[in-house]
Write a structure and sequence with these properties.
Layout (H helix, E strand, L loop, with lengths): L5 E2 L16 E2 L2 H26 L3 H18 L8 E3 L4 H10 L5 H28 L2 H6 L2 H13 L2 H8 L4 H17 L2 H5 L1 H20 L2 E5 L4 E5 L5 H5 L15 H7 L2 H20 L7 H17 L5 E3 L1 H10 L4 H15 L2 H8 L3 H25 L7 H15 L3 E3 L5 E3 H19 L16 H4 L11 H6 L5
Parallel strand pairs: 1-2
Antiparallel strand pairs: 3-6, 4-5, 7-8
Helix pairs in contact: 1-2, 1-10, 1-16, 2-14, 2-16, 4-12, 4-13, 4-14, 6-13, 6-18, 6-19, 6-20, 7-18, 8-10, 8-18, 10-18, 13-14, 19-20
Length: 481
């Protein structure tokens, strides 16, 4: 059911042990409050990861609302979830920008073209799962492989922090990181859940204050690509932006070489979606396996639609699952309300310009946490599934793939095509694992795990990725992606 929700009880209170099911609701004023809470929960990662990927936060916020509505319709209202920006694409997107001219409109179109193709692949995977069953994906991506891919996506972004963000303002980056540490760990409940967002806001304010106290900074300037003297924060774009207007959408440009750089994100998205859907099923006490394929296909279709207009890739969000667990309100009505609020935010260009003014040093302090947590979610999958690393079939390809991603190591394929970093590492992990199992059958990690065991990344953060980004952060701080 996606409309015509039944009022739960008196619409005001929940008795001990009761929950508001997906097809139920409380009073509409209360549902508006729950919807706004879901917006706040997803907000940090959904605009941070587009910022990191060089895409428009306004478009990402707006299409996160559109994507959520599409997802709810595709799953027939059976799986309450919010779709925000995935963190899983960040490494591939940055590699695309290096290869195709950096932060330019032409590169933006190539980035979104690659994301669109990945969305199509994900949608087709969802259709296949729907008709063939969840077990098929578990055999291709057992826990040892899934954990490795999630880990290399996170740790493979370390060079972005070291080479791009941190050098722009080392002290602001360090301070932002420490402040975010404290918020996530010290504060419980709602404040802890939005620790990444609060850390970003505080870092922004500190950067503005540093400009007033110390003047301009002489450091690496990402806008010019050289070391020069410039203000940490500039509000010129904010002043010029309108309060209400359609964001600057654009059409994608599909390049095969760019697609290969982000294609590994499909693996992380599959694992992430399975984990999130299973978590929702356990909380609501329903069998979600019949809707697993629909959920993955819905995420893929939503990513296609968002990227068609210049938006960011999407994924289901652990942050919002955490909100449901805390409130015991699983009503899809709250998600429709959250989606409408997000769309309205996206139609405010001045808001987007303010977000785009976030200093690079602040992003350095935030992304070092996000990328690290994404990587450690891979280890969480291994631990929960008791992966045996005394077995060389598990250890050898996984270790090699992670090092290739962290490098990032480049492998020339002909004179005009390069595989590197996350893409190369993923190919080595997946291909190497299955090759070694074929050569020495019966000695690798058991591939026939259940879908629940793939839930590590979901139950734990862009964008992304992503989130990823950041399931663990979603529960206490923030990366989908």
């Amino acid at each position: 059911m996606v409309a015509g929700w039944t009022k739960h009880g008196d619409g005001k209170t929940l008795a001990p042990g009761e929950v508001v099911r997906p097809d139920e609701r409380l009073s509409w004023p209360r549902m508006i409050g729950f919807g706004a809470q879901h917006v706040i929960a997803m907000f940090g990662a959904t605009f941070v990861f587009p910022l990191v990927m060089g895409l428009s936060p306004n478009i990402a916020i707006m299409f996160s609302g559109v994507a959520t509505i599409m997802f709810l319709l595709i799953v027939k209202g059976k799986i309450p979830s919010y779709l925000g920006t995935s963190a899983s694409f960040v490494g591939g997107v940055l590699a695309i920008r290096v290869s195709f001219g950096g932060d330019t409109p032409a590169a933006d179109a190539i980035v979104t073209g690659a994301i669109l193709v990945v969305g199509l692949v994900l949608a087709l995977v969802g259709v296949a799962i729907h008709y063939l069953g969840v077990h098929i994906i578990n055999r291709i991506f057992p826990p040892v492989v899934t954990g490795a891919v999630v880990m290399l996506i996170g740790f493979g972004l370390a060079y972005v922090v070291a080479d791009v963000y941190w050098p722009q303002d080392q002290w602001i980056a360090l301070t932002t990181m420490l402040v975010t540490f404290l918020i996530i760990v010290v504060f419980k409940g709602f404040i802890g859940r939005i620790g990444i967002l609060l850390g970003l806001v505080i870092g922004f304010a500190l950067s503005w204050g540093a400009d007033r106290l110390f003047g301009n900074i002489t450091a690496y300037n990402a806008a010019t690509g050289v070391v020069d003297t410039h203000p940490r924060v500039s509000f010129a774009g904010v002043a010029d932006a309108a309060w209400i207007g359609w964001p600057d959408t654009f059409l994608p440009d599909i390049r095969f070489s760019a697609v290969l750089l982000v294609l590994p994100a499909v693996i992380a998205l599959i694992a992430e979606n399975i984990g999130h859907v299973k978590a929702v099923g356990e909380m609501t006490g329903t069998d979600v396996d019949p809707y697993m394929g629909r959920a993955i296909a819905g995420d893929g279709v939503a990513t296609v639609v968002a990227s068609t207009f210049g938006g960011s890739p999407t994924t289901t969000y652990a942050e919002n699952i955490g909100v449901m667990a805390a409130t015991r309100v699983y009503s899809t009505a709250a998600y429709y309300i959250a989606a409408v609020i997000a769309i309205l935010f996206g139609l405010c260009p001045k808001f987007g310009a303010l977000v785009a003014a976030t200093p690079g040093g602040v992003l350095g302090g935030i992304t070092v946490i996000l990328y690290g947590m994404i990587g450690l979610l891979g280890a969480k999958i291994w631990i929960e599934n008791q992966v045996d690393f005394s077995n060389p079939i598990n250890m050898v390809p996984v270790g090699a793939g992670i090092i290739l991603a962290i490098g990032p190591v480049k492998q020339m394929i002909g004179s005009h095509f390069v595989l590197e970093g996350i893409a190369l590492g993923t190919i080595v992990v997946v291909g190497g694992y299955h090759l070694l199992r074929a050569i020495a059958p019966g000695t690798g990690d058991e591939p026939g795990r259940t879908g629940t065991e793939l839930g590590g990344p979901g139950q734990a953060p862009g964008g992304g990725p992503g989130q990823a980004p950041g399931g663990g952060a979603g529960q206490r701080g923030e990366a989908s992606g």
